[in-house]
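quick one, 128 residues, struct below
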Amino acid sequence: MRFICLGYLDHERFEGLSESERQAAMKECLAYDEELRQGGHFVDGEALQDSNTAATLSVTNGRVVVKDGPFAETKEQLGGILVLEARDLNHAISLMSKHPGVRMGPFEIRPADEAINKLVKRTQPLDF
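---
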C-alpha cells in the first residue's frame, strides 16, 4: 500500500542551524532514504523550494486568481513529499518515525487514493 508523506519544515529551526549542521542533517536524511530504498519502502520523493517561490491558484467569481505564496499562519511550510510503500498506516508511521527529517518539522502521512489514482493514470477518456 502506498502512503504519501508530506514533510513540513520549520524554517526558523532550520535557519538556526550552522551550515555544517544543515549539511549533516541532509546527509542523515539521505542515508535513511537509502535505507528505506534498500528495504523496498522508498518509492519516490521530491524536495520543494522555499514557499516564497510558490504560486497559489484559486477561483473567484469564475476566474482563476493567482497569488504569491502560500502565506500560512504556521511556522512550518511544506518542504517535500515522500512516497512510501508500507503494509498499513501503522507500518508507515513506524518507518517514518525513524526519519531524521522529523526533527526539522512534522510529517503528515496519508494513504494514497488508489481508485482515483487509477483514473488519473488512464489514457482513454473518462466515462462518468
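The radius of gyration is 17 Å.
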